[in-house]
Specification:
By secondary structure, the protein is of the alpha/beta class. Among the domains are: about 80 residues; about 150 residues, no CATH class; about 200 residues, P-loop containing nucleotide triphosphate hydrolases (Rossmann fold), CATH 3.40.50. Strands 6-16-7-15-11-8-10-9 form an 8-stranded parallel beta sheet, sandwiched between helices. Strands 17-22-21-18-20-19 form a 6-stranded parallel beta sheet. A 5-stranded antiparallel beta sheet has the order 2-3-1-4-5. The longest helix has 27 residues. The protein is globular.
């Protein structure tokens, strides 16, 4: 059997770890590419080719060009319709490029019958709070479900989908503003999102937690229309990023074609920066200053064309961050009859993250274009090191309002901090942020070729300035809602974090105003009172529909707790506890020599400790281990390859707790009960105010972890919780509030029956 030589070249730097560690290639310093030799029948070559296509890298096999991303892109632009394979292999990070093709791929016959039920606008008074519990033997209401799904790939609807769709439609007709659905993970909530809007025949916003889930909706239902943030699209004008010269922009507009020169993203286009410039490639505005979505999207730029097409479609799919940013910007998106939120248990956290901000030394290094500490360490001479240190004085000297922008050196807030001192500290941080915002805005306007921001830096600086602006307004009007934490372990603070305690007052303006009626779906709502309170839902306007059983056979999804690892609390974790965890993992892994596995370590520190312990004590299990970097593209590449490859690898990841479809996984190991970090002042304050909230958030995370490896009735996956403290928390819990009371009943039952 012969060997063939494989070469990968192009923009390989961001993929260097994957190319070396996972694909078995070595960097060739002379040719500045990656190479390797493999048997001619090796499946590794197929994997490498797929990887190159995903990441637009050139591939040569035995000197012959196997894949050229430039030629592939040209071919892609000529393509008018996606194949099934194309849809399955779509890269979510290039979703903006795929959207025009997806729009052409729509086959309206795949939607099914529309408007089988009359929709009436809900009343202002509300319908009165209602709970609906659905058991396994609950009969669906009489309705033409086949009419909704005939000739679609959702036909026929599952029994559980029919059981919940009926009450959802009844709640809509009764006029409830908020319809909250709790339905087990893997039960097909995307089909429900489509079907509820389809049944009433009304336009809907569908909001997903992540861009990856947004892409999943489009893969399953290409007739939907979608849009993301401006940064995912190119501007059609050949101008520099951040161009604010009206004359330059106008001249570029006059010579613009339908083909983007790829000079800057739509987020940095003149339509955003050049005051008084009116670009004809944008969605036009009416006399009220609102976008006129009746305009023809043909001839618009890729961003505004996608936005206009989405607004003229029955289904508008967006991710939470984008939809909240649009809500924050004013009345840009018109209200629709339905706002449908998937993974709704994430909503409150998403809104808190949207309003939170951490100012760090790393952030300041970027904003002030300064050398890093690593640059100082790598400097070849003492003279250069001293030069770098002097450049960094801007951010090392504590903020004084006179040129120093180091983080204010204050004591972190505690539960006992007096209100007056807390207010004073927040005012200090406010003055600091105000000065920082003005400085960044000034630097954005800088035209000096030596010091001005490049494209990526400008985008980052603009986003930071906008975020600071929002934060200042919120703190000024509601300082009692804010907590703060400062790095106190260094002479110069390296970070300060500012977070809100409540988002209920923001929810309407940020997101909920987009829908007359809001349908929120999740597998883990758990406590409707806490869920509603966190989001500011009025009880009289809310109905809660809960499925009390799992549609998947219990024997296919056991949860075991008899194998114990080491204690992993912050105070107790160490070499010995990590060794015990590694021993437990090895014991479990040996039961499944041919199956894939998933380890959920909860934190990065625990992940690193477990990996080192497996390396030192169980090399055979370590050899099966699959890790990823924290770089999103590299991480998602590992996820895709883990799903596609036929092997017995074990993926360890803190990112797979939620949203990861692990139907190919035979076993899952949960290393630690996922309690929120009480070292975080926001979490600690909320837990102190409401211990039940803290327990519920833990149960939500745990239930999501336990639902990773069984996603359909035919899947089979075993879950192991190896935290030795788990049964205490399950049976007794803190403050006599056991997890058994909070977890979904079918999860609790799987634990009890397999002890």
């Amino acid at each position: 059997m012969g060997f063939i030589v494989v070469r990968v070249c192009g923009k390989t730097f961001s993929h260097r770890h994957e190319l070396k560690n996972n694909l078995g290639l070595e960097y060739d310093f002379r040719n500045k590419d990656f190479k390797g030799a493999f048997p001619e029948d090796s499946q590794r070559i197929v994997v490498i080719e797929k990887f190159c296509k995903k990441h637009r890298l050139s591939l040569f096999v035995d000197g012959e060009e196997r894949y050229n991303p430039v030629e592939a892109k040209k071919k892609q632009k000529k393509q008018t319709k996606l194949t099934i394979d194309d849809l399955q292999n779509m890269d979510e990070f290039n979703l903006g490029e795929w959207l025009p093709i997806l729009e052409q791929a729509a086959d309206e016959s795949e939607i099914g019958k529309v408007g089988l039920v009359k929709w009436n606008e809900p009343s202002e008074t509300g319908a009165g709070f209602k709970q609906i519990h659905i058991e396994k033997d609950t009969k669906p209401i009489n309705f033409d479900y086949d009419g909704l799904t005939q000739d679609t790939h959702f036909h026929p609807l599952r029994d559980i989908q029919k059981q919940v769709l009926g009450p959802m439609m009844e709640a809509v007709k009764e006029g409830y503003r908020n319809i909250v659905l709790e339905c087990p993970t893997g039960s097909g909530k995307s089909a429900l999102a489509k079907s509820i809007a389809q049944a009433f025949g009304v336009p809907s916003y569908i909001v997903t937690h992540l861009k990856g889930l947004q892409a999943q909706y489009l893969k399953e239902m290409p007739y939907m229309k979608s849009v993301m943030g401006r940064g995912n699209y190119d501007c059609l004008l050949d101008v520099e990023a951040g161009c604010d010269d009206v004359k330059v922009a106008q001249e570029a507009l006059e010579r613009a074609t339908d083909k983007s020169p790829e000079t800057c993203s739509a987020a940095l286009a003149p339509c955003k920066y050049a005051k008084g410039f009116k670009c004809t490639k944008m969605t036009p505005k009416n006399d009220m200053g609102m976008y006129d979505f009746n305009a023809d999207p043909n001839g618009m730029c890729s961003y505004f064309g996608s936005l206009t097409r989405a607004q003229n479609a029955m289904y508008f799919v967006g991710n939470t961050a984008y939809m909240m940013a649009m809500g924050k910007s004013g009345k840009v998106l018109p209200q629709r009859p339905f706002l449908i939120v998937d993974e709704a248990h994430q909503l409150a956290n998403n809104m808190m993250s949207f309003h939170s901000m951490t100012v760090s030394q790393k952030m300041l290094e970027k904003l002030f274009r300064l050398p890093t500490q690593q640059d100082i360490l790598n400097a070849k001479s003492e003279r250069k090191k001293e030069e770098y240190r002097k450049q960094r004085e801007t951010i090392l000297k504590v903020f004084d309002g006179k040129g120093a922008f180091g983080i204010p050196k204050l004591t972190s807030m505690t539960l006992n901090t007096p209100p007056a001192k807390r207010k004073e500290a927040l005012q200090t941080f406010g003055r600091y942020l105000f000065a920082l915002r003005d400085e960044v805005k000034e630097r954005i306007k800088n035209k000096d070729a030596q010091t001005k921001y490049d494209k990526r830096e400008l985008s980052y600086a603009s986003n930071c300035a906008a975020q600071i602006e929002d934060l200042l307004a919120s703190i000024a009007t509601d300082w009692e809602n804010w907590v703060y934490q400062v790095d106190e372990n260094n002479e110069y603070p390296t970070w300060v974090g500012l977070k809100p305690l409540r988002v209920a007052d923001y929810a309407e303006d940020l997101l909920f105003k987009l829908g007359h009626q809001r349908i929120m779906m999740s597998g883990t709502i758990l406590d409707y009172e806490i869920f509603g309170r966190e989001l500011g839902l009025k009880p009289e306007e809310t109905t809660y529909i809960k499925v009390d059983y799992s549609p998947f056979p219990e024997q296919n999804r056991p949860i075991y707790t008899h194998i114990k690892g080491g204690k992993l609390s912050r105070k107790e974790r160490g070499l010995e506890s990590y060794k015990k965890c590694a021993d437990a993992i090895a014991q479990i892994a040996k039961k499944y020599p041919e199956k894939k596995g998933l380890i959920l370590p909860f934190t990065d520190d625990i992940e690193n400790g477990i990996v080192e312990a497996l390396k030192d004590n169980h090399p055979l299990v370590y050899a099966r281990l699959r890790q990823h970097s924290k770089i999103p593209k590299e991480r998602d590449a590992v996820f895709r390859e883990f799903e596609d490859e036929q092997n017995n690898e074990i993926l360890i990841s803190t990112y797979a707790n939620q949203g990861f479809d692990g139907k190919m996984v035979g076993f899952t190991i949960i290393a630690k009960v996922p309690f929120g970090p009480l070292g975080d002042i926001q979490v600690k304050t909320k837990a102190e105010n409401d211990p039940k909230w803290y327990q519920m958030m833990t149960a939500v995370e745990l239930a999501q972890m336990a639902g990773r490896c069984v996603r359909s009735s035919s899947d089979e996956g075993h879950t192991y919780i190896i935290d030795p403290s788990f049964m205490f928390h399950f049976e007794r819990g803190m403050s006599n509030n056991p997890l058994a009371r909070v977890l979904p009943p079918y999860v609790a039952k799987s634990i009890i029956n397999n002890r």
